[in-house]
Design brief:
This protein is α/β, with parallel strands linked by helices. The chain is built from 9 helices and 11 strands. The strands form 3 sheets. The protein has a 6-stranded mixed beta sheet with strand order 7-6-8-5-9-11, with helices on both faces. It is elongated and about 60 Å long. About 40% of the residues are buried.
Length: about 290
């Protein structure tokens, strides 16, 4: 009898031990992957499951092709779709809206998730809108028509007595007023299309634009167009274009991460090589 009780006790103890081990195994937390806050399904975009991108109209080359941002052609169109893909949005889920430049850089809720339109990142603009990390490093330049009074200019001093223009509200215009400092009143234009016509008509002697635009305009849009030169970048860290978002947007961090990833893996460089390869060398005017 004593032997039987001993066996039963051992069996019971073993059973309890196994049950306890089983309980510990069953209740152990399972490893789970951290949620991806930047996955498309977790982003609070204007339209669920869609990414809305803004740009101006007309959409100028070499940043866009044929005034059609939806075709993926041109540097900024290609960059926009690369950012969208990095965020998890297929091309079919990207919607484009017209966003005039002047409306993009002022305070207020935007009708896009981000805008791409050669908008330079500045401390002043950061007071009104959010910017992504920079997706393109840029210098400003000046163009003219062959035979004009500034054709062949070698320095900033050679430009000061000329009539010069640039699009209002841009860093091109800031370069005109703060770097060149002309003695003649600068001419402000609503956009580069109007400014180019003024240059052709002889209303201005030179037009300030960013360097890629300078080479594109003189090669493809102006007869006898000339790139006079470029200006050394006076901005700390260099002037960069950034994607624009509503101030305080919940998307800013994720959009910046996407841009950073595209720079790190060489995608931005490849897109630049494809669409901005025509950007040549221009002398630096000092």
């Amino acid at each position: 009898m004593a032997l039987r009780c001993t066996v039963l006790a051992i069996a019971a103890s073993t059973s309890l031990l196994l049950m306890a081990c089983g309980a510990r195994y069953d209740t152990a937390p399972m490893a789970t992957s951290a949620p991806d806050d930047c996955a498309a399904s977790n982003l609070a975009t204007l339209a669920a499951g869609k990414l809305t991108i803004g740009t101006d109209k007309p959409a100028f080359g070499p940043w866009f092709s044929n005034d059609d941002p939806t075709n993926g052609e041109g540097f900024e169109s290609a960059v926009a779709y690369a950012v969208a893909a990095k965020l998890g949005f297929a091309k079919a889920n990207v919607t484009w809206v017209v966003a005039p430049f002047a409306s993009v850089i002022v305070p207020g809720v935007k009708q896009f998730d981000f805008d791409i339109n050669q908008v330079s990142i500045t401390d002043e603009r950061k007071k009104s809108v959010d910017f992504s990390s920079g997706y393109y490093d840029v210098n400003q330049a000046i163009i003219t028509i062959k035979g004009s009074k500034i054709d062949g200019a070698k320095s900033i001093a050679d430009l000061r007595n000329a009539t010069l223009g640039a699009a209002i509200g841009t860093t091109s215009y800031t370069t005109l007023t703060d770097v060149i400092k002309p003695t003649t009143l600068p001419v402000a234009f609503d956009d580069n299309d109007i400014a180019k016509q003024a240059l052709v008509n002889g209303q201005i002697d030179g037009l300030i634009v960013d360097l890629p635009t300078a080479f594109f305009i003189t090669a493809a849009e102006l007869e006898n167009g000339v790139v006079v030169g470029q200006f050394a970048n006076a901005t700390a860290g260099g002037e960069q274009f950034g994607l624009v978002l509503t101030k305080g947007s919940s998307l800013t961090t994720c959009v910046s991460k996407a841009v950073d990833a595209l720079r790190a893996d060489g995608t931005l460089a490849r897109i630049q090589e494809q669409w901005l390869a025509q950007v040549g060398v221009a002398p630096v005017l000092e």
